[in-house]
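Morning!

This is the sequence you dropped in the shared folder:
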Amino acid sequence: MISPLSVIWLPWLQLLLLAALCLSFAANPRQLEGVVADFLSARMQRRYAEATPSYTALVSIAFFRMGVLALAIYMLLYALVPSLSLSMPVYWAAVGIVAIVYVLRRLLQAIVQYVFMWGNVFTVSYNHHRRMGLCVSLVLFVLLLCQQWLTPRGLVIGMAVIGVIYVILLLVRAGRTFLVRPLAALYIVIYLATLEILPAIAMAACVYSIAMHV
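The structure's back. Tokens below.
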């Protein structure tokens, strides 16, 4: 198994992702306030209302999130299946897959929202998911930067812990959003299955398929 640190393009990629993150925060310094506000009361959420982000902030943070998620999936698969190869074309293919899944997920969300007539419920959930996704991306990025001190098993455990915490936060937020409605448990299952679990499985499966054929 080749150490990821011996891959020449990986440090440059991490610098590129860091530059995108810095550019996003420079264009919209209040992004983290929205993350903090999500875990506060409704009154505090209004106090920490996000300003309308600029085009530069939206593009740079979208690139950062997709790039980090693609790299995390790639490194996780490589830790689990050492026979996979680490190559830049596969990584950029993974970024493309993540971007496509993001778009399809947004379309699926619109369809589910229309079918079940959830309206503002899904709008609130989407905004929360976007802010929490930024927080998770930051934690994943730090973990990927620290992989030189981690064994493959340690990397897998670290990502598993992040995944478990993410699911718990999703369940807590989904409960707060849907429990006020009839058949709340069914709504939570539909939400998690169609908009969280299915996209994650699809991304991992596509990246694995591409990496195995390179």
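Headline: The mean pLDDT is 76.

More detail when I'm at my desk.
O.
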